[in-house]
Queue: 2 jobs
Job 1
Amino acid sequence: MNARILVVEDDLHIAALLGRELVHRGYDVQKASTGAQALGCIRADRPALMLLDLGLPDMEGSQVLRQVREAGSSLPVIVLTARDEQHQRIDGLRAGADDYVVKPFDMAELDARIQAVLRRGGHPVARGLNFGALTLQPDGVRMAIGGAPLTLTPREFQVLRRLMNNADHVVTKAQLQDTLTGFHGDTGGKTVEVYLHRIRQKIAGHDLEILTIRGFGYLLRRIPFA
């Protein structure tokens, strides 16, 4: 079961972007835009971790955190704060936050901090990875597309997993060749293109495509709506 993250953020644009990135990284996401909503979600749904913005419209994030701790909850909490809010960061940590991240933050760093806090709390961090119709199962060795198992050879799997881990970013041919290091036989550029051709056939008909960016590499992306 994927860890459920409660995102408490009153900026709906930031909340949407953050939620999308977390889902892509394999978490289940719940959102709240006020302190009252956050407290209700915690009581009703018992999330695995809360990402808490300190500047909420109805109360300070530190007040939310104090109420959570006063209720006896050990819910892991990471505070999201702006660079000029040092006093609020200190208030958040004193109120019982487990960690904090300064906006604007890098998603890879935030993900690493989430995993570290979950591990400290004894919560399993194994999770799947989702991108469009494509899912990498939590065991890291199986994929599904549109909810159905996706049959891949070991080399095809490694190539697609590399593209999926870097979805919406260009992966060079050299990087894909490096992914195949350790396999017997030819892993040169032409071989990579053969695997990409096979993968394209297997994901055809879904909301994904692999683009060739000439002179740069390959890009896994969602097919834009017309």
Note: The chain is about 40% helix and 25% strand.
Job 2
Amino acid sequence: MPAAKQILCIDVGGSGLKAAIITPRGRYVAKRVRIKTPKDRTPRKIVTALAKLVAPLGKYDHVTIGFPGAVKDGKVISAPNFGTEDWKGFNLAAAMQRRLKKPVKLLNDADVQGLAVIKGKGLELVCTLGTGFGTAWFRDGELMPHMDLAHLVMHRKDDFDVVVGDMTRRQIGNARWNKRVKKLIPVLQTVFNFDHLYLGGGNSSDVNFKLPRNVTIVSNDAGMEGGAFAWRRPTKR
């Protein structure tokens, strides 16, 4: 498949749906557009909302969608923030390809963010701190199969999504939430033995403690920009 000249990048989030046309180098062609995520989060409603969102945008060749859940071969495996039963097995890539008449790639949203920030050397881990907890890992620039750590129990009966998710942050406050994130980093270091860790997502800007030398806060805009690199970097699904 020839390289895309311009890529429509879509970020499906728990609170908002975002889209922008981006060059293969990750630069915005125009300002991104955003609407609130519909309260009715069924596949049909989300597909319709996305089609309306991107309709006013300019021309593009390919489409990348970042989705907050486990995905494989264009299909949604789980969508905990959207109602897993409604989404399980839904081929979102095919549905959007029918609507937009362009080739579509569907990736986990943390995977997309990672594609924009990694250096392509060694084992790099990307974690997103947003509505929930997302992860993506790369070896020498290659995206590895997705591991849904968000639902691995971290403390008593609470999984990563609960322990460091946005609802918990709002309930316990930033100070206590930061202590939890700080404790999480050495756990991830032990499990992954990463060379570098990138912290992204909407709540990464609330991290206020001194980070280890091999940990970096990255812009949440990478969740859009990485969509361009999805058509350039090799991936394993």
Note: The chain has two domains: 7-112, 119-218.
